[in-house]
UniProtKB/TrEMBL annotation:
A single GO molecular function term of this UniProt record: nucleic acid binding
Domain DHHA1: 246-332
UniProt protein name: Phosphoesterase RecJ domain protein
Highest rank taxon of the organism: Bacteria
Origin organism lineage: Bacteria, Pseudomonadati, Bacteroidota, Flavobacteriia, Flavobacteriales
InterPro entries the record matches: DDH_dom, DHH_sf, DHHA1_dom, Oligoribo/pAp-PDE_c-di-AMP_PDE
Length: 339
């Protein structure tokens, strides 16, 4: 975060404000961790701060300090809209375009508060007065750590509640510190968070070792459906709405399943296609290893984007048509997929 932006934010926060903090739709560990971490920090500074999420988040994140205070827009629209309308400062975290909040977009576009963006995805839009964007960061949670450090000139204001929230987001967005975005700086940040009270072993347990039977059944179904295309060093998984319903799908049950494709030898491109009949789309997650940019692939063909090695997208045709389109595209990327 540059000095000019730090100065601007510090000046804004020097007086009391009504502040709302917004994550993206279908918030993950980084989105919830960063928004809650920032909420605790702002409250400790005497600000009125509330997190408003577009929709609900996975059960494995519902232990996090302050999570019970999160307002879910789709459940409490009138209350949420009142907070947003009255807010003088609006933080948007872990996304860089207002379309990423889904049905909240219109409300945010009409808001008169000062917007501050903290995000690490590519190609940020220009709606915010202050944009702290860095695509090289491991996570938005690491950026919130840097944000606090820049405002305070040290990290002494990071409490155990903040530390637990930020650790969770860094851990989940780095694949437990194995992705290339994990730098030596990331490890130094994590070490400081542990020193400040982040219960790292307990966090790993709560996030990864509290599976429901439905999640494991869905995982089994997904792995059974996996298709391996050796010529393209690619593996993809499909999950139909019928399969999700049969296995009593709950939000968060498909989180991380796409990564199993990359555990196969000689696979550098992994994809999962998940049918969502309520929204009339096929939700797609892309992962890669090495130099193959799934961000560019998703932007070019599936109305998506994200990071070079992790991105999302969608399709408005059937599951069968979507996978057929995907497979047909691979031949033009064969040279890039050699590894």
């Amino acid at each position: 975060m540059n000095k000019e932006d730090s100065k601007t934010v510090k000046s804004l926060l020097s007086s009391p404000h009504k502040i709302v903090i917004i994550p993206h739709k279908n918030p993950d560990g980084d989105a919830i961790g960063s928004t809650l971490g920032l909420m605790h920090y702002l409250k400790n500074k005497g600000q009125q701060a509330v997190v408003i999420a577009p929709n609900d988040f996975p059960k494995f994140l519902k232990w996090m300090p302050g999570q019970e205070e999160i307002i879910i827009f789709e459940n409490d629209k009138e209350v949420a809209e009142k907070y947003i309308t009255e807010a003088s400062i609006i933080f948007t975290l872990d996304f860089n375009h207002l379309s990423r909040v889904g049905f909240m977009q219109e409300t945010l576009e009409a808001a008169e508060g000062t917007f501050i963006m903290i995000d690490h995805h590519q190609a940020p839009s220009d709606y915010a007065k202050v944009t702290y964007s860095d695509v090289h960061m491991s996570s938005t949670c690491e950026m919130v750590y840097n944000f606090i450090e820049a405002i305070e000139q040290d990290t002494s204001k990071i409490t155990s509640k903040i530390a637990n929230c930020l650790y969770t987001g860094i851990m989940t967005d780095t694949g437990s510190f194995k992705y290339s975005s994990t730098t030596s700086r990331t490890h130094r940040v994590v070490a400081d968070l542990i020193d400040k009270g982040a219960e790292n072993m307990a966090i790993h347990n709560k996030v990864f070792d509290t599976n429901s039977p439905s999640r494991l059944h869905i995982l089994g179904c997904a792995l059974k459906n996996m298709v391996i295309l050796e010529d393209y060093h690619t593996a993809y998984i499909t999950l139909s709405q019928e399969e999700l319903d049969e296995n009593e799908f709950k939000k968060g049950d498909t989180e991380g399943i796409v990564n199993y494709g990359l555990t196969l030898d000689n696979i550098i491109f992994a994809v999962i296609f998940i049918e969502n009949k309520d929204e009339g789309i096929i939700k797609i997650s892309f992962r890669s290893q090495g130099n193959f940019s799934v961000n560019e692939f998703a932007r070019a063909h599936f109305e998506g984007g994200g990071h070079d090695n992790a991105a999302g997208g969608k399709s408005n045709v059937s599951l069968e048509e979507t996978t057929a389109k995907f497979v047909a595209l691979l031949d033009s990327y064969k040279d890039q997929l050699k590894g």
